[in-house]
Amino acid sequence: MPRPRRRKMTRAEWQHLRNGLLFTLPGIIGLLGFTVYPVLASLYYSFCNYSVLKPPQWIGLGNYSVLMHDSQLGVALRNTAIFAAMSIPLGVATAFGLATLLNQRVRGMAFFRTIFYLPSVMPAVAGAVLWLWIFNPQYGLLNTALAAVGVAGPGWLSDPAWSKAALALMGTWGVGGWMVIFLAGLQDVPAELQEAAHLDGASHFASWRHVTLPFMSPHLLFATVMGIIGVSSFFTQVMVMTSGGPADSTLFFAQYLFQNAFQYFKMGYACALAWSLAVVLIFLTYLIFRGSARPVPYGGE
Amino acid sequence: MSKNGTERWKQGVGQAARRCLGLASLAALLCIGGCRRAGPDVSSGPVEITVWHPWGQDQAKGLQRAVERYHRAQKRVRVRLVFTPTDLSSNQKFFTAVAAGKPPDVSFVDGTQVAQWAEWNALSPLDGYIRQAKMRASDFYPPCWKQALYRNRVWAMTFCADPNFAFAWNKREFRRAGLDPDTPPRTVADVDRLAASLTRDKEGRLLRLGIIPWQQYGSANSVFTWGWAFGGKFYDERTERITANDPRIVKAVEWMVAHARRLGITRVNSTTSGWGSGANNPFITGKLAMTSVHISTLADMKRYAPDLDYGLAPLPGTPDGEIGSSWVGGWLLALPRGSQHPEAGWDFIRWICATPEGTAAATAEMGVLPGWRRSPAITKAKKNPRLRMFVRILEETKHQRPVMPVQAFFMGALDRAVERTLYGKQTPQQAMDQATAETQRELDLILGKKVQ
Questions:
Q1: Which CATH superfamily is domain A70-291 in?
Q2: ipTM entry
């Protein structure tokens, strides 16, 4: 059947379109001016030598070839990977554990849920300053508590061997967001399946392992993917607490990008770093989703 | 809603949209009008200039009082001070303002950054004004003049010359350790010997330290301080080569690291994490018996510990290096590119950096020393037993940090190199080789040389 020819818009339709566009104009301008343009500009600058004060100079793939041999970038990537391997499992496990506990029927549950969520609404910088004090090797809360049980605490943030662990530990304090997601997921686990499992003689652990966990896997997957993205842009706390030190032990990717962009004003190189990260992240996310296609059932499929 | 009502509603929406559009264009027009710069000032009233400065608290108040003296001295220019820190790590605001064509009329610039800002076209040269005012290089202490000189042009004027550093020793702690309180160390070997006697620990915790060589106002400044004391050279201006792996500088870093080994770096860190500044300055509390001191620390000592029994001496060095080496840093004033009132800006810069009244005002109100050697403030400071040492550094030292356009990167590279050696990740030789190579690569990139 031939498709009907496009008819001309009526006056009313045209007016609707115009009014609609006018009302969404602020949003469209915002999107174009503050998202699309910067994103495209950063792609262009990534092929340039650009220091903001002088016009960009096209150098083709120059930045990308420097990036391949940048030893400092290697340090930053290794640190980021180690930190991801520490902080994501720790954070997800803590959030999941908390969500499980907060899913019990206990008096005053609303109060507990609020208390555990509260650190997440704290501004990151304020939290970082607070933890600086907690980690203080001499007068800090943490080492004082450890000393009470006879353990001489490490230098935490001032010791390269402990600084990443310290930041990961601090991360468990702010898992409230994930906790809420897990809590919502746990409440969606069908009660009748759990009942059936119990009737069939499954232990608490077995029903958790074979009923709860499979239903929670989409949430866990989501948290892991968001965790990876979060770690690769982990910045505020590092900037406030360590600036990448000591001895580059907390120099993560985002901090290195910031140094290049805003301390050395190598904007072109920083843009190349950012675009490489974006490509790597998209690839990683793709891998995770492909690798987990089977173990994660979705309601829709 | 009835059909009629819907129609009316639609009409209303159309009208509202038209009105919005009208308002938006009006706002845009107003904005464009408002954003347009007023032309050069032709009215007869005083010209107001904006000066960006990095000073906080008492120093900011002092600067404001100095500016008021300037206002009383003349009626043509009025200065509006705006606190906008610019330092090695936070130039973003300044650069974006210059790039957008809306810079302040005058800005402070850190001594290490003049070349970088000049190379990036962020400053206007002052040579024309300097010629007109018949100022000469010999009016200034040589390092103060040299740190503003890049590619044979002068880009800034030294506002405060920081004589870095005098060497302070706590006489009371010397007595307690059974040492002669009136004999400061002259050589690095003396420092080692005294530090060994001064260090006191109890159950593994450090109660008092002799010296922390790598903490002389940051690791990078420590390398400069001891590097020159050991007789090293950091940069060859003629060939534009970074020479931070000079054997003497490597020796200096080795010496710093030897102290870290002896004391235990993590032990020192956990000790210093309990230290503070101001009244809790470890030198004031007696926890650190020897250290380099910046001129601003004198005010702290006078304020928080007027009875502190300490002495000031030239920096120790090695016999084949330089005893009493020191160097000069400090803040300068410059005209950013695109400054709207360069004449008025220059008038202020000249007054506060290179006139008898202006330099006297800055010294009296802020406790800084000028780089202009004819200042009455210098004559006065020579009479003060403490300040005398700092004036002597200004008059005698030959050093300022290398004037080249990747100084911020260089400082960062030195900081990281020292940290890597302190934690035993690299030998001093490896670390300084790496810092040299990294910085050279950046420098070649900026100077447009081929990167190898």
A1: MetI-like (1.10.3720.10)
A2: 0.76
